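Researcher: We plan to redesign the surface later, but first we want a full-length starting point. Tokens attached.
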């Protein structure tokens, strides 16, 4: 028996050594050694090494044709077995251009010509992608080949060949009757698009020879073959595409056309090809990529000839640009006077259009201190000097801030708003620059206000002093006939009033306006919420009644005397206090509902109620003070003016004082709520005490039950000598049971 085992082990070791020799022979390309070893049946032909490779894949990868032939002679070889990386023999041979090996593999009946490897690519895709025409021809001779089978992204062999410009492979594939020349992958890429994008003009020509080729198919990014060729500057491809009827010249790819894309990239020849093509819509109905007009793109890329031709074609449009610059803005900033003249000749162009940064062309020129450009722009009657940037700055204010005095001297003759805005901002230095350049100091804005009005209205005292010293009209009136002095009096600015009076200002009065539709002429009364009314008696009578009245009441008429005004005040105060009491009562109702829901389980309720009680106490004190003040005022008023009307006023005061009863009711309600809350809290505490007592009783029972067991365990644990002879474990139970009985008897006697 031992001899047989020894023989078996020797045989296994021998077989392993032979298998190892075969791997070395295949790797070294030793055909004779490989053939000799492959005759043995114990050779594992489909074995994989530590890298997951099979013998066949190793030979294919190294290009050992003779070794591959030897391996294929074995009837048990699996020609479609993948290695650990998903590689297949035929796919590797086709991808690496091993024509002879591919031919040997294709002779096998069970070879899978449409299998995908770990990269999800078929043998035909790999051969076509790498331009191995002979292998592609071998594969196409197979009847079971699928010429349109793509990878996982949908890219077919024709797409791969077109992308890499393999003309022979493309020609072979197009010769198949079942080829799909317009097959699209997940990204929508077609063979024509890939060839056009890469500039493979011969491949593009082969594809365009087919009548069924689609010229304007869009990718997932809305690009067409013409757009890709123009964007990448491929002149020959662009010519080929433009020679075909039905080509779309105006495809919109995220706001770009083929022409705008070529201009944006600076491709002059391609741009000219597209510009002169019939059917090209030069006016784009929308914003172009990065906000440039076609003209801006041409100017920005230095394509002056094309820019001039575009200007002649009048293609510029006035669209709001999300990002970028208008042609006029670009030319104004760069002092391109010739281009500015050409642009201004376009009637459809708005010369005041703001760019993406909110700047106008004139403000750009003013900032750059370009006198020639500013003068040229001002020659156009369409230029609005007062049109400011998005931040409110005008060209004149920008020139003043940058101290471009020459530009300031040009702009001051036509500007009518900058001085007002600078005064409003308090920019004294820029104001002085404008005045030094003879700006009209008395220019008025849209409401007729002069710069002095604006200085008073915005509390710019230093600027007002400077304006007056420069000769500002101190008595200028706006559209409402208000002078600076009147404005200063209305706004209670004494320093301005004194300053204006020093310069002989006159006419300090105020005018009030009321809504006519709200007047009730029969009663001589106006109701206007939030308005204060003031009036004065024109002529005093024999009595010493009140002369001036000022009322901030919601509803107010002209009272006969001070008593009637005082009564209106008391009635209004009583109404406000009652309204407050109603709101407080509603608040306490909500507190009561919350109290019933919580059942005394919210500790903060007591503090909230105590806070409310404090508020009521403070309100009662405030009300008492108001009532006392009203009584004292009524007494003093009666002593001074008499007339017997003080008694009527006391009736209003007593009604006002009755508010104390409402506050008393609210106080009692709060006390009741506090008592309820204390009761709920007491009940909850009692429940907690009862629950705690029950828990303690249960704990006592548990202690009595486990006490004997714990005592027995501790006894055995301390007396180690008892356990020396390994006594029976039932002794522990007997001892524990005895203690439990004794404990129970003792507890019963104690309980009795």
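Model: Full-length starting sequence:
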């Amino acid at each position: 028996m031992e001899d047989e085992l020894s023989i078996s082990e020797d045989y296994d070791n021998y077989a392993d050594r032979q298998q190892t020799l075969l791997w070395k022979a295949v790797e070294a390309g030793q055909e004779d050694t490989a053939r000799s070893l492959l005759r043995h049946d114990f050779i594992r032909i489909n074995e994989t090494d530590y890298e997951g490779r099979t013998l066949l894949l190793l030979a294919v990868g190294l290009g050992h044709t003779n070794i591959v032939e030897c391996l294929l002679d074995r009837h048990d070889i699996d020609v479609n077995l993948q290695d650990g990386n998903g590689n297949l023999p035929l796919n590797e041979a086709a991808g690496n251009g091993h024509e002879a090996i591919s031919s040997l593999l294709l002779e096998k009946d069970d070879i899978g010509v449409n299998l995908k490897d770990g990269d999800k690519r078929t043998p035909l895709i790999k051969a076509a992608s790498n331009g191995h025409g002979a292998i592609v021809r071998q594969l196409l001779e197979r009847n079971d080949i699928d010429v349109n089978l793509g990878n996982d992204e949908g890219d077919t062999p024709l797409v791969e060949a077109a992308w890499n410009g393999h003309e022979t492979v493309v020609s072979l594939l197009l010769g198949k009757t079942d080829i799909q020349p317009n097959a699209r992958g997940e990204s929508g890429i077609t063979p024509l698009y890939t060839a056009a994008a890469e500039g493979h003009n011969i491949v593009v020509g082969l594809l365009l020879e087919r009548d069924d080729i689609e010229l304007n198919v869009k990718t997932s990014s809305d690009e067409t073959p013409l757009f890709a060729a123009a964007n990448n500057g491929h002149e020959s491809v662009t010519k080929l595409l433009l020679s075909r009827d039905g080509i779309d010249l105006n495809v919109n790819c995220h706001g770009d056309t083929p022409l705008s894309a070529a201009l944006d990239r600076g491709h002059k020849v391609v741009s000219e090809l597209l510009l002169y093509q019939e059917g090209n819509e030069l006016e784009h109905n929308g914003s172009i990529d990065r906000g440039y007009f076609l003209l801006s793109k041409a100017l920005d890329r230095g394509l002056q000839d094309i820019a001039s031709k575009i200007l002649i074609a009048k293609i510029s449009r006035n669209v709001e640009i999300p990002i970028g610059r208008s042609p006029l803005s670009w030319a104004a900033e760069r002092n391109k006077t010739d281009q500015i003249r050409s642009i201004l000749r376009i009637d459809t162009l708005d010369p005041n259009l703001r760019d993406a940064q909110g700047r106008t062309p004139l403000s750009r020129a003013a900032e750059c201190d370009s006198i020639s450009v500013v003068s040229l722009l001002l020659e156009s009657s369409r230029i609005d000097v007062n049109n400011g940037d998005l931040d409110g700055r005008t060209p004149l204010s920008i020139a003043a801030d940058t101290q471009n005095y020459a530009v300031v001297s040009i702009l001051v003759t036509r500007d009518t708003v900058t001085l007002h805005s600078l005064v409003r901002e308090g920019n004294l230095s820029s104001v002085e620059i404008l005045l030094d350049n003879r700006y009209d100091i008395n220019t008025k804005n849209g409401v007729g206000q002069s710069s002095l009005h604006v200085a008073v209205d915005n509390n710019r005292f230093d600027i007002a002093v400077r304006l007056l010293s420069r000769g500002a009209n101190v008595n200028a009136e706006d559209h409402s006939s208000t002078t600076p002095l009147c404005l200063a009096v209305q706004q209670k600015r004494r320093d301005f009033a004194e300053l204006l009076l020093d310069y002989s200002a006159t006419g300090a009065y105020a005018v009030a306006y009321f809504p006519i539709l709200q007047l009730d002429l029969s009663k001589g009364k106006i109701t206007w919420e939030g308005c204060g009314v003031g009036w004065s008696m024109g002529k005093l009578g024999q009595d010493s009644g009140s002369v001036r009245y000022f009322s901030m009441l919601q509803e107010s008429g002209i009272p006969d005397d001070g008593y009637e005004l005082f009564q209106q005040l008391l009635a209004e105060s009583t109404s406000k206090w009652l309204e407050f009491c109603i709101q407080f009562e509603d608040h306490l109702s909500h507190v009561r509902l919350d109290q019933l829901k919580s059942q005394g389980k919210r500790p903060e309720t007591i503090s909230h109620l105590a806070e409310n009680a404090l508020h009521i106490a403070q309100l009662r004190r405030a009300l008492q003070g108001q009532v006392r003040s009203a009584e004292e005022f009524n007494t003093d008023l009666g002593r001074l003016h008499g007339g017997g009307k003080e008694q009527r006023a006391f009736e209003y005061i007593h009604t006002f004082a009755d508010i104390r009863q409402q506050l008393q009711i609210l106080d009692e309600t709060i006390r009741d709520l506090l008592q309820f809350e204390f009761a709920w809290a007491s009940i909850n505490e009692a429940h907690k005490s009862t629950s705690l007592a029950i828990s303690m009783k249960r704990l006592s029972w548990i202690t009595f039950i486990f006490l004997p067991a714990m005592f027995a365990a501790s006894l055995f644990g301390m007396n180690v000598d008892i356990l020396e002879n390994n006594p029976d474990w039932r002794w522990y139970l007997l001892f524990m049971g005895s203690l439990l009985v004794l404990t129970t008897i003792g507890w019963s006697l104690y309980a009795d």
